[in-house]
Amino acid sequence: MRGQGRFFLVVLVFFCVFLLMLILSIGAALLNGGLQNAGPNTNNVSVNGTLEIYFLNVSQGDSEFIRQGNATMLVDCGQQDQGKRIAADLTGLGIFNIDYLVMTHTDFDHIGGCAEILKDFNVRNVVVDGQQRDTAVYKNTIAALGNRSAGVAHMGDVIALGGARLKVVHANAGSSDPNQNSIVMKLSFGNFTALLDADCDSDCEQSLLSEDISAEVLKVPHHGSAYGSSAGFLQKVSPSLAIIEVGKNDYGHPSNGTLERLAASGARIMRTDLDGTIVLSTDGGVPSVSGGGRADAIANGEEFIYRSQLPDGPWDKTAFFMGPNYYGPSELTAGFAMGALEKYSRPG
Fold this sequence. Notes:
Layout (H helix, E strand, L loop, with lengths): L1 H36 L13 E5 L8 E5 L2 E5 L7 H10 L4 E6 L5 H4 L2 H7 L1 E7 L7 H10 L4 E3 L5 E4 L2 E7 L13 E6 L2 E5 L5 H7 L8 E3 L11 H7 L3 E4 L11 H10 L2 E4 H4 L2 E5 L5 E4 L2 H6 L4 E3 L22 H9 L3 E3 L5
Parallel strand pairs: 3-4, 4-5, 5-6, 10-11, 11-12, 12-13
Antiparallel strand pairs: 1-2, 1-14, 2-3, 7-8, 8-9, 9-10, 14-15, 16-17
Helix pairs in contact: 2-4, 4-5, 8-11
């Protein structure tokens, strides 16, 4: 009897161990299945509040102001003479503190106005590309930092801005060309995404093709330069809206070729020289977009003449915005792409 009791005890122990292992294996399978099924759900990402992006009209230069809840970021500051204008725009929005000032690279039309911003606002964090320049604008900006320390952006860095996330998808590449060292960030908020591309063209743009850069909104690289926005890049991003920050310039920005590629991609095109400051607002879904309109564009001296008959008709010598007919931004963009419009500076 004692032997049988031991036998049954051993059987019972083995049975319990087997049952426990079975339960654990089933639980693990269910857990693993749950994790696999709980991957990124791009259709149901819950966020609170509203994200706002202001693509500021700073003539020939870049500046974007981002706000999510009480968290704020300013990306670039245009040329030096635009610093006071940006400061006025921000104070008009009730902004006196800036959580992050990101200077994407050291060109004068991106950092020129930052000295004014550093002087006028409580800037809590400064992010730079790490390149040093022997230029008056760069030295003036560094001097304005005072006792503040600046962090250098690296690939893969993520900045939390309220419920929004900005991931660095390109950082300083050690190039002698500042544009190729641009900090490029992909912004995500709920299901909404935007690619803030600074002046990243040529080699910089090529390196982005290996990154996750698909985005609903594209801040067009380098003011619409002919050296950026390749067909392959636009196919990878697949934007619904392309925003060009540009003003009067002698560089040919935006190039007709870039405008044609943007139009062929199916993206809606907006431009700060035509639409003024462009404001985007989203709760994490499809954004609403508005522009300051032609009055804001005219304030920066943008005027055009229109060719009445395509493609070889005579030029109407009346400044375009002052003429009897007003053509909307999409028609202007199409007109440029077809060679129907050209910049015109009114004498005097």
